[in-house]
Design brief:
The protein is 51% helix and 20% strand. Helix 2 packs antiparallel against helix 11 and helix 7 packs across helix 12. It has 14 helices and 9 strands. Strands 1, 2, 3, 4, 5, 6, 7, 8 and 9 form a 9-stranded mixed β-sheet that branches. Helix 7 links the parallel strand 5 (174-177) and strand 6. It starts with a helix and ends with a helix. The longest helix is centred in the C-terminal third of the chain and has 35 residues, at 257-291. The radius of gyration is 24 Å and the shape is globular.
């Protein structure tokens, strides 16, 4: 009798082991993070690079703990709708242009002041320091946690009218700008005719001639195929385009303290990698944009442009916060 029981015992043992494994797997199911952004899922798109690097760093730090689902190209709505989704806990993570955060707290408008940063290294130093912490603190009371600033590089001007070499060249050019009063004020100061418009409408608008052009980072020009639709690219470097990697406070607080630390560390590492990638891509991108037929020019000295927009700083001084602005201007002048 005993030998005939062995297969049955083995089967029971295997069944118990399988049940135990399934129970353990259920207890440690991966946390799904829905991650959205507005632009394309292109290997050259800075939003997409941020998203993919964040997923890679999470997996490297905590294998199997997170399942990141990507929603590019406005699949979960525009920036405003995604911010609302994070506030409500309906969206877990977003890569959001810093300009849109000014709609939640006016202090974020400091990032969009024209010709504020002289180069990317200076922008990194300032945004990774006290300024960045101050800005992100203001979001937490709204239910959003700032994990850091990646970048899309500096924003430049593209249009179908003429090259921009001096402030007077902006005269009468109808430019799509981000839906921001500060952007409208800045480009009016330069003599342009700015039109606020959601990103999702911009390509069609320039194709149909509703606008003459827009202001946009190099990587976004190429990844979203603007080189085939617009004649002139002028390297105005008027605004440093900070991208905020954000997480719903509800989503973060559902995690254990250990996994919250993993998320924050993964974000920092992803941002460092993303900045390096964007910087290395930019020189090659200019050549690719030229090869697709776009005429490219430098503006020479930025000082005439700075002089033209000087009144903008005073106009937004109080809404941004006089003390915050003064501290930031001191840092960028060092």
């Amino acid at each position: 009798m005993a030998p005939s029981l062995k297969p049955v015992c083995r089967l029971m043992t295997y069944t118990l082991m399988l049940s135990s494994l399934l129970a353990s797997s259920a207890l440690h199911a991966a946390t799904t993070l829905r991650l959205g952004w507005t632009t394309s899922d292109s290997p050259l798109d800075p939003y997409a690079i941020t998203a993919h690097y964040f997923q890679e760093e999470l997996e490297a730090a905590a294998p199997g703990e997170f399942q990141v689902r990507f929603f590019p190209s406005n699949q979960l709505g525009n920036d405003t709708e995604m911010l609302q989704g994070m506030q409500l806990g309906m969206l877990d993570v977003g890569v959001i242009t810093g300009t849109q955060l000014g709609t939640l707290d006016a202090s974020f408008q400091i990032n969009d002041l024209p010709f504020l940063f002289k180069d990317s290294a200076q922008a990194h130093r300032v945004l990774d320091g006290e300024l960045g912490q101050t800005l992100f603190t203001s979001l937490e009371r709204l239910g959003i946690v700032g994990l850091g600033f990646s970048e899309a590089g500096f924003r430049h001007t593209i249009n179908n009218k003429r090259p921009i070499e001096k402030p007077a060249d902006f005269a009468g050019i109808k430019l799509r700008v981000q839906p921001s009063d500060l952007y409208l004020t800045s480009f009016r100061a330069l003599g342009a005719n700015p039109v606020p418009m959601p990103w999702s409408d911009a390509f069609t608008a320039v194709q149909q001639g509703t606008v003459d052009g827009l202001e946009i980072p190099l990587s976004v020009i190429y990844a979203n195929k603007y080189a085939g639709a617009v004649k002139y690219l002028s390297l105005t470097s008027h605004t440093y385009n900070a991208l905020a990697l954000l997480m719903s406070k509800q989503a973060l607080e559902r995690l254990s303290p250990e996994l919250q630390a993993v998320v924050r560390s993964a974000a920092r590492k992803a941002i460092e990698r993303q900045r390096e990638t964007v910087a290395s891509n930019e020189k090659a991108l200019i050549e690719k944009i030229k090869a697709e037929g776009m005429q490219v020019n430098d503006i020479g000295s930025a000082q005439p442009f700075r002089d033209a927009v000087a009144p903008v700083y005073e106009q937004y001084r109080e809404s941004i916060g006089a003390e915050l602005l003064d501290r930031t201007l001191k840092q960028v002048s060092e």
